[in-house]
Amino acid sequence: MLKINADRLLNDLKQLRSFGAASPGVVRLALSPIDMESRRWLADRMSDAGLDAVVDGVGTVFGRSRKSGAALLIGSHTDTQPTGGWLDGAMGVIYGLEIARALAESKETSHLAVDVASWSDEEGTFAGFLGSRSFIGEPVNETIARARNREGQWLKDALETAGLTGAPRVRLERGRHVAYMEPHIEQGGRLEATGKSIGVVTAIVGIRELRVRFTGQRNHAGTTPMSIRRDAGAALVGFIARMNEAFQQLVASDTVWTVGRIDLDPGSLSVVPGQADMYLQFRDANAARLLAMEQKLAELVRDFNSEGGVGAALATLHEPEEPVTMDKALQEHLANASEAAAPGQWVRMPSGASHDAQLIARHIPACMLFVPSIGGVSHDFIEDTAEEHIVLGCQVAATAAVAILQEMTARRS
Questions:
Q1: 350: closest CA among 325, 378, 383, 385?
Q2: Which of 147, 161, 218, 258 has the most crowded Cβ, counting Cβ within 10 A?
Q3: Of residues 116, 147, 119, the one with CA closest to residue 133
Q4: How many CB atoms lie within 10 A of CB 266?
Q5: What angle do CA 332, 335, 339 make, to 5 degrees?
Q6: How much of the chain, in percent, has pLDDT values that exceed 90?
């Protein structure tokens, strides 16, 4: 079995952590000066590993193996949230780097090709999944022209400042890239709660984001009797209770829904709200269930409006994200590698978070591997994973990578 170098893996992860360190977390926003510094460091590490490394025209760091034949692409992202953890995304990239090195150091596997990617702006500082979208050939020029970060900086200006304007962009090589693997921290608490060490991802959930706007009548909070009020805020709160009860009849154990924001107009203690907006997101790996939830929500709004008083209107906020199933054959390779390294300590599970893999999976077979997040925490400075789980996850990914490449190579011979 191919053996990774655990010390080298952990040292590289800790070195990457130093770029934008905000103890114990990291602030490394996409295309910021510290992000670009880390990308140049990463490209150097890839070159040291024998990969042909570039930082492309949208900021993706790409290390291409010099080996010919079928190549497995391993990657994730190294940009962070404004209060980011040190492993979200970064771990998967360094896994890829370590696996490429370990393959080259073994006579039995030195002929196998692994390419490594750190996709640009997965976290959406300017435009989410910019690097992977560009890689699969989506037209991103319009995005580059119109996207800005929350400080108002234009994406095109950030690329120019980073020296990337006009630089070539890496593209999926369909005759070469036979599969994609994205190792990642779980970003949730299921593995830890069940005492498991590895998660083999079955699917990445779909997402729906909607707004329900309630319209009543502003009025004086002291002089308007409760019996004649058209209180949009009170209507919203009551509607949430109805929605929760209705959704409970439709969902599965992995379904989640969140009212993440409520706006009251005018938002004064002395004014009965005349308008109230609730912003809702729900996620599930089953497309039919997502549709059923959408239909139920629309039905609830219709029933609410039939009662009179305060009115309600439903609106879709963003294009829906559909669930993406991970390739079954690749899942089996990960499952076999998990059982070999950690018998009985792995589980199949969906990903409740979005990842670059969901885009790349539309073009080539893709798979994902999870390791536990301590306390189930991510997107926060205290995000962490035990070193033993980091090392174990990389060993599982390496073992699976060899099996995947050997199978793909045999098919072509």
A1: 325
A2: 147
A3: 119
A4: 11
A5: 140
A6: 97
Q: Is 328 buried (19+), middle (13-18) or exposed (0-12) by CB count in 10 A?
A: exposed
Q: Is the peptide bond before 24 cis (omega within 30 degrees of 0)?
A: yes
**371, 390 in Cβ contact below 8 A?**
yes
User: 66, 51 in Cβ contact below 8 A?
Assistant: yes
245 alpha-carbon distance from chain centroid: 29
| Strand 52-55 to 61-64 pairing | antiparallel
> What is this structure's pTM?
0.94
Per-domain residue ranges of the chain: 6-204+323-412, 206-316
Region 6-204+323-412: CATH code = 3.40.630.10
Contact 122, 79 (CB under 8 A): yes
pLDDT at 413 over 80: no
List, for residues 165-198, the tens digit of each pLDDT value. Answer: 999 999 999 999 999 999 999 999 999 999 999 9
Predicted pLDDT at 409: 85
What is the CATH code for 206-316?
3.30.70.360
Whole-angstrom Cα distance, residue 125 to residue 28?
10
